[in-house]
C-alpha cells in the first residue's frame, strides 16, 4: 500500500486512469494484431513522455529519448524520411537540452510555465504555414516519400513546438494538437497500405491528441499560478 501511495504521489486520478487505460488497450491490440513488442514499447514510452510533459516534469525527457530512437526506426521502415531526420538530428539533442533547461526553472518539483500571448501566437502561426509549404515541396521530390505535405507539417510543427516546450510556453500544446491530428491521418494512411506498425502508431498519436488537450488545460492553470506567485 505504501508503494502505491508513493507512485500515486502528485498524480491526479485522470492521469493515472488515462495511463492505465491506454496501456491496457495497447497490450490487447498487440496480442490481437500480433504486433511486435518493440512497437509496443515505443508507444508506451511515448505516452509516459507526453503525460509527464503535461505535468511539467523533467523526467519526461528520459522516456522521450527512448521513444525518439524507437520512432525513428519505425518511420524509416515506413519510408517517412522527414520523420527519421527530425527525430535523430533534432529530438535527440533537444531532449538533452530540454532536460537541462527545465531543471534550472523548477518550483516545487514542476517546471515554471509561461505564455506567448496573442500577437506572438499569430506570428508563430504564419511562420509554421510558410515552413510547411516549403518543406513539403522539398519532400515531394524524394522518390518513395509518402504523404510529403503531411510529413512536412508534422516535422515543422514538432520542430517549433519543441522550442516552445524547452522555453516553457503553454502554446506548444496548440501545435501538438494540430500535429497529433495530422499524425493520426498519416499513420492511418500507412495502415490502409498494409504497414505492420500503422495500428499501434495510430493508437499512440490518438493518445497524444487526448494528452495535448489535457496539457493545454494544465499548462494554462500553471501559467496563471506562476503569475500569481510572481514567477513568470
How would you describe this protein?
With 232 residues, the chain is mainly α. It has one domain (37-42, 59-228). It has 9 helices and 2 strands; from the N terminus they run αααααββαααα. It has a two-stranded antiparallel ribbon with strand order 1-2. The longest helix is centred in the last third of the chain and has 31 residues, at 198-228. It starts with a helix and ends with a helix.
State the gist of this model.
The protein has helices spanning 2-8, 13-32, 37-54, 60-77, 81-104, 118-139, 148-166, 172-192, 198-228; strands at 106-107, 110-111. The chain is an all-alpha fold and 232 residues long.
Keyword list:
78% helix, 9 helices, mainly alpha, single chain, 2% strand, disordered N terminus, 232 residues, two-stranded antiparallel sheet
Kindly name the structural category: mainly alpha
| Amount of beta strand | under 5%
Tally the helices: 9
In total, the number of domains comes to: 1
User: Strands of the biggest beta sheet: in what spatial order?
Assistant: 1-2
Largest sheet: 2 strands, antiparallel
Q: Report how far the terminal alpha carbons are from each other.
A: 38 Å
Global morphology: globular
Instruction: Tell me the series of helices and strands, N- to C-terminal.
Output: HHHHHEEHHHH
Q: What's the mean pLDDT score?
A: 86
